[in-house]
Structure formats: structure tokens, C-alpha cells
Amino acid sequence: MTEKRRLGSAGPRVFPVGLGCMPMSLEGRPDEAASARVILAALEAGVELLDTADAYCIDEGEMGHNERLVARALREWPERERVVVATKGGLRRPGGGYAHDGRPEYLAAACERSLRALGVERIDLYYLHAPDERVPFADSLGALARLREQGKIRLAGVSNVDAAQLTSALDTLPIACVQNRASPFHPQGLEDGVLALCEREELAFVAHSPVGGWQAGRIAHEPLLQELASALGATCHQVAIAWLLARSRSLIPIPGASRIRSAEGSAAAAGLRLPPEAVSRIDRHYGEPAS
Ligand SMILES: NC(=O)c1ccc[n+]([C@@H]2O[C@H](COP(=O)([O-])OP(=O)(O)OC[C@H]3O[C@@H](n4cnc5c(N)ncnc54)[C@H](OP(=O)(O)O)[C@@H]3O)[C@@H](O)[C@H]2O)c1
Questions:
Q1: Residue 61 sits in which domain range?
Q2: Nearest residue CA, atom 24 of ligand 1?
Q3: pTM score of the predicted model
């Protein structure tokens, strides 16, 4: 049986691979019924962590699109209490672009909207989407702390932070998870001190864009991953996910999907054991600066 991983020392244990729901709300997305089927297929395959955000949508006019999709799929899922839904606030989509907004009053209002979009009284896990350089980080963290005290969120997390920012977050409120980028194309996400801090403080490091994010199309054409994948009877995507899982027990990758095949393939990577030699070869190959 696949060993679960904890969402922070006070959080529940979940299946080690989550589902990134973002691709189901951006340009080129499937229709809503098809997206609900993708989410249900991931849950069927064992996934227990769904990652969403209010800002996963085409533009400001449909904020909450992805949260509503998740809520819709979960209405058809009999074991809702087994699923952790993580969402985020602090990013706006003016004109379809991206703008940080970490003002406490904005975060308080964004959390209310997320509660409504998800149809819940308390959010399982709520992240500050990213620090806003125009707002003191302590003020944004204070807003998260208040939401927790008010019972509107169960667990708090921070995303796109460096080690210094994580340290100050930990000084302000109990943090369960950090969500930062990490993939073979971005191995520095595992080396900048944040993962080490997560391991020491027993937080989960939730890896976003684990198969490359906007570069995901590249991963199936990587010769080293192709070689390892064919030796293991797996896909390059699965090798990338298994590599992350092997790098640390604190790591929980959340590969995105807009197709059932991707969601099922990623969940199956939880059962793939990479030999230590394969892990070191990926480390060396992608860890070395390109010449
Ligand atoms: N905190 C943040 O700032 C932040 C930033 C970016 C992303 N995220 C979160 O992290 C999640 C993952 O990142 P991402 O979606 O940008 O990038 P990703 O997971 O690196 O790549 C996603 C794309 O790769 C394909 N894919 C994934 N697993 C596959 C598999 N096993 N086999 C074949 N294809 C596979 C999917 O294609 P199909 O669409 O064709 O299925 C998907 O669209 C997001 O969905 C979001 O929830 C957070």
C-alpha cells in the first residue's frame, strides 16, 4: 500500500500525489462536465489532495471558476471527508493578467468568496498565493492568522516563498505547508533552503509545476527520463514525479491535469520506486548548470 504523507505536523495524512486543478480553468480548458470527470478519476485513483485557487480562471470576471469546479466534482464523491481541498488567495487577474494583492482586507474578502465558491464553512488548507512586495509580509500573514482564529481556515500555508520569508511566517502562525515550484527543470527549488526548513519543522513541501509547468510539453522528450522510463515500464512524467517523491518524505507533488489519462498516470506514479542510482542520475543531470 502507498504510504501517505502528512500535511504538516497537525495536518492529516494524504496520498503522496495530489491533483493540480489549474489546467481545467485556463485557456484551452475542457468543459465543466469533462473537468469534473478528471477530478473524479483522480479521486478514484487514490488522490486525496486537490489543489485550486480563486485565481485559476481566464480573468477577473470569473474568479473562483476552478474552486466551483472542485465543489461540483466533490458533490458527486461519496467520501468528501477523506479529501483535502487546498485553495489560495492573494492573486488577482485584471484583464487576464496576474497581479499580487496581499492586503489584509483583500485577503479577508477573497477568503469569504472562496468559502462561497467551495460551498464550505471552513477551508481545509488556505495559502497566501505569493508575497506581495507592496504590502509588508507580516500584514498578509496577520490576515491568514486571523482567518485561522476565526475558524474560516483549518490549515494555513504559504506559497512562492524563500527561506527567510518562511522563517518569518513560522514566527507568526502555525504553517502546515509550503507550496513552491520544483521539477527536474527547476531542481533549485529543492536546494534553496526551503525544503530543508520544511523537513526540520515537519511541514509539507507541496511541489507545484512538478512536470515542468509551462514547459511540461518538454518532459516526454528528455533522453535521460526516456531511458529511465523505459527501463521501469513507466512514462517520463511518472519518473519526474517519482523523483520528487524520492527526494524527500516531506514532498507532495501536485501535477496538473486536464485529461483523465494525465490524472491517472500521475496518481500511479505514487507506486513507482526509483532506484537510488536513478535518483542521483536525475540530480546530477538537471542539477548541473547548462554549458
Ligand atoms: N502556487 C503557485 O503559484 C502555483 C503555480 C503554478 C501551478 N500551481 C499548482 O500546481 C499544479 C501543477 O502545476 P501545472 O499544472 O502548472 O504544471 P505541471 O503539473 O508541471 O504540468 C501540467 C501539465 O502536464 C501534463 N501532465 C501532468 N501529468 C501528466 C502525466 N502523468 N502524463 C501526461 N501528461 C501529464 C498535463 O496535461 P493535460 O492538461 O493534457 O492533462 C498538465 O496540463 C497546478 O495545476 C496548480 O494547482 C501553483
A1: 5-287
A2: 216
A3: 0.98
